Amino acid sequence: MKNNRRTIMLGVFVLLGLAAFTFAIFYVGQNKNMFSPSIRLSSMFRNVKGLEVGNNVRFAGIKVGSVSNIAIITDTSIKVEIYVETNVQKFLKKDSRMNIGSDGLMGDKLIELMPGTATAGIIEDNDVLPTVKPLDIDGILVSAQNTLGHIEVLTDELSKVAYKANHSNGIIHTLLDDKEASDRVKSILRNTDMATANLAQDLKAVQSNFLLKGFFKKKEKEKAKEEKQKMKMEKSGK
């Protein structure tokens, strides 16, 4: 009885193992397009940005295939091969393009197929498609970090200036916070304007004075004579 029970349990475990193995084979095969008709396409990239074999291929946001191979051709060329389901073939054109994207902001890399123009022919097996330059996320992050650093320095400097203006006894602090000093400055400016106006009036009065009229007229004649001579010299020079 014990031997029979062990044999039955062993058989159950073997069947469960075979079932799990079969399910895994079909699941992986379906995800990797092993059991569905497909065509092979390829493109050349300068940098694949972490793309790996087995990553998804999407068209219009729908998974239509997977990356089958990545090979370094030269120091500036990397060949990426993909398998795409044949039921999507009619939607892809000869001028369709490959783009390396991300599954979310920090997700796995994937291939995005961009639709071509309606006038171009339908793609065929083993076609080589043009590519879209991958977005340099690392470069963008570095640039953003540098910009934030500059903003932080500027903010710190502005904070220091504001602190000094609020806590020092300088003219800015005095004008902003001391109403009496501010009123005095305004009064000085008003007096200056009045003094300038009075000076102008006094000059006019002096010029109109009978005893000094001759002096000012003489000065005006000399000035007019100098201007005429200057004009003559300019005309002779031309």
What does this structure look like?
- With 238 residues, the chain is of the alpha/beta class.
- The protein has 4 domains: 1-31; 37-134, Elongation Factor Tu (Ef-tu), domain 3 (Beta Barrel), CATH 2.40.30; 136-168; 178-221.
- The chain has 5 helices and 8 strands; from the N terminus they run H-E-E-E-E-E-E-E-E-H-H-H-H.
- It has helices at 2-31, 137-167, 171-177, 179-208, 210-237, and strands at 38-45, 56-59, 62-74, 77-85, 97-102, 109-114, 127-128, 131-132.
- Strands 7-1-4-3-2-6-5-8 form an 8-stranded mixed β-sheet, with no helix packed on it.
- Strand 2 (56-59) and strand 3 form a beta hairpin.
- Helix 3 (171-177) crosses helix 4 (179-208).
- The longest helix is centred in the middle third of the chain and has 31 residues, at 137-167.
- The chain is elongated.
- The protein starts with a helix and ends with a helix.
Write the layout of secondary structure elements.
Blueprint: H1 2-31, E1 38-45, E2 56-59, E3 62-74, E4 77-85, E5 97-102, E6 109-114, E7 127-128, E8 131-132, H2 137-167, H3 171-177, H4 179-208, H5 210-237
Parallel strand pairs: 1-7, 2-6, 5-8
Antiparallel strand pairs: 1-4, 2-3, 3-4, 5-6
Q: Structural class of the helix and strand makeup?
A: alpha/beta
- Main CATH class of the largest domain: Mainly Beta
> What amount of the residues lies in strands?
15-25%
Ranges where pLDDT stays below 50 over 5 or more residues in a row are none
What gyration radius follows from the Cα positions, in whole Å? 44 Å
Helix content: 40-55%
What is the CA–CA distance across the termini?
133 Å
CATH topology of the largest domain: Elongation Factor Tu (Ef-tu), domain 3
